[in-house]
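> forwarded from #structure-qc
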């Protein structure tokens, strides 16, 4: 059974992998989120992702902003 820390690490890894796969920086993500009406600075995004402590809403907003329609949970 996974701990909360392990779940957070998995969520962080999923989001970081999707950003890297698309070559999207935190600056670009902030800009894309802004077009969805979500105001986040690149620094706030970096902090949230590095901690791995963000809401499901934030995760979905980021995935929408980068055009991710599917996620692969395991390799």
């Amino acid at each position: 059974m996974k701990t909360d820390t392990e779940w957070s690490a998995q969520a962080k890894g999923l989001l970081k992998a999707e950003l890297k796969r698309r070559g999207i920086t935190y600056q670009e993500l902030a800009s894309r989120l802004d077009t969805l009406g979500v105001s986040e600075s690149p620094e706030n995004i970096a902090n949230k992702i590095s901690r791995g402590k963000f809401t499901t809403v934030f995760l979905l907003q980021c995935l929408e902003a980068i055009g991710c329609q599917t996620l692969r949970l395991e390799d």
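QC bot note: The longest helix spans residues 4-22. The helical segments are 4-22, 26-35, 42-51, 56-66.
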